[in-house]
Write a structure and sequence with these properties.
By secondary structure, the chain is an all-alpha fold. Helices cover 70% and strands 0% of the residues. It is built from five helices and no strands. It has helices at residues 5-25, 35-43, 51-69, 76-98, 112-132. Helix 1 runs antiparallel to helix 3, helix 2 (35-43) crosses helix 5 and helix 4 runs antiparallel to helix 5. The protein is globular, with a radius of gyration of 15 Å.
């Protein structure tokens, strides 16, 4: 069974973002020079989340990756529901970011830098991934 190229691309992106969250959980600031910049650019508040939170997000992204790239051979209905869930979560995340309301799901994420990045980078990426899922 072949994997759809769109699903493969979405899965690769989700996996890469998950790996980045693992790196952040381990203390990396890549691609930013320090924790303060990472916090402002990506989190939108003065401190970064605890490692456990980064790993939790990475785990969810890993599960989303599996749902998106696995061919629906064993349980097609379950996978379709899972993929719809991934699309709904990412679509909601995109909408909140476009409207400048990511703070509803991530309290305190209100810095001007984060909101700019959220509208220009994070929300379009989430929207594209939602459509691909």
């Amino acid at each position: 069974m072949r994997i759809d190229p769109l699903n493969a691309t979405a899965g690769a992106a989700l996996g890469a973002i998950g790996a980045l969250h693992v790196a952040w959980g381990r203390g990396s600031t890549w691609p930013y020079p320090d924790l303060d910049t990472l916090a402002d650019e990506v989190v939108g508040r003065p401190v970064v989340p605890a490692p456990a939170a980064c790993y939790a997000v990475a785990g969810l992204l890993g599960a989303a990756t599996v749902l998106v790239v696995t061919p629906p051979a064993v349980a097609p209905r379950l996978q379709a529901v899972g993929q719809a869930g991934v699309a709904a979560v990412l679509g909601t995340r995109a909408a909140l970011g476009f409207f400048g309301r990511s703070d509803l799901v991530s309290p305190g994420s209100t810095s001007a830098t984060f909101r700019r990045n959220d509208r220009r980078r994070f929300s379009p990426l989430c929207a594209a991934l939602a459509l691909s899922a």
